[in-house]
């Protein structure tokens, strides 16, 4: 077991990925996960196996799976072991095993993980104490709010948030750039709301928005969402038709629809599309509204003016709307209306979507024939063709196609095999972690050589 290989696996989701490990759990292949962890040093298999074994009460086996990784110095395994111990009720043993030292307490990442473990162990006061020095980081402040949900600590949390929210209200000009925590006002309103103090949350955040006393646009969106959740249509009308209509009108329209005024919601959106200097921001809310009413043709026409845009293009959204409505032939017709220039500029996206829609429509032979007209090195083509072959019941051809493409990850073959009940074969056919890591290094070196010594590594 090699730490560098494990770090590469964790960073790139290489080897047997979390997705594959989850598939194996779902199919009852826990013993195969245990074997892969033991014989191949696959971390995601060890993690998934330990969690599943813990879930069914096989605590000692779960700990045994993790032990070699801990002995190798893989820190994530120590934290996973602590999770298993907490689930087993061995709380003190778990906490003692990962309790941060002075250096650890200075790390927001370590404190985050330890606080989550403390909360799971029912030691919420200690969790809050651990998080407190790091609450000027947005994600740590969010963690505090999440961990205290329905725990009777709202007043304590509000006391911790209040000075940070007040600082956010007071920043001006260039001070806004990089201000932390920029989400303090949003979270203050969220905690007030969950504490049943909705009027106070609305009044406080509304005053901040009206006076421009906030740092980031997310605060504005949080206010609009708060109003919509509580049916505050009039406040949303003021917000959604004022100077911030571009960001909030959609929330006003949805609140009207929720209030049984779908016709007025539609009218508001159509007026904004007609009158606005930047109308396209209002098209998608109208498309969604029309889609919910089953008025698909009208939804398509609303999006059509954007189909050839480089930015704010709604074409992909319309394709998926038609797919969800079962209108596959209409989606294909829209694709085939695109110009040669559009197809050339979006070649991979266009071809993969066309093959996908043909496959969804059951037109498999047509999909394969179309795929045969495309450049063989087109990105994503191999996977699309393999999917079609699999849909046609031609599994071995699909597997051969995937195996022949050296640019694909081994996990593509493994996933297909697992879906067909051939999990052991899937794992046996995977190169080892060290082999995959070495191949990744060679690939990166080749890419860097192609770029040249003076080009940036991205």
TrEMBL record:
Disordered: annotated segments: 429-458
UniProt-listed InterPro entries: TPR-4, TPR-like_helical_dom_sf
Superkingdom, natural source: Bacteria
GO molecular function: identical protein binding
Xref: Gene3D superfamilies: Tetratricopeptide repeat domain
Protein name per UniProt: Tetratricopeptide repeat protein
Species lineage: Bacteria, Bacillati, Actinomycetota, Actinomycetes, Kitasatosporales
The species this protein was found in: Streptomyces sp. R11
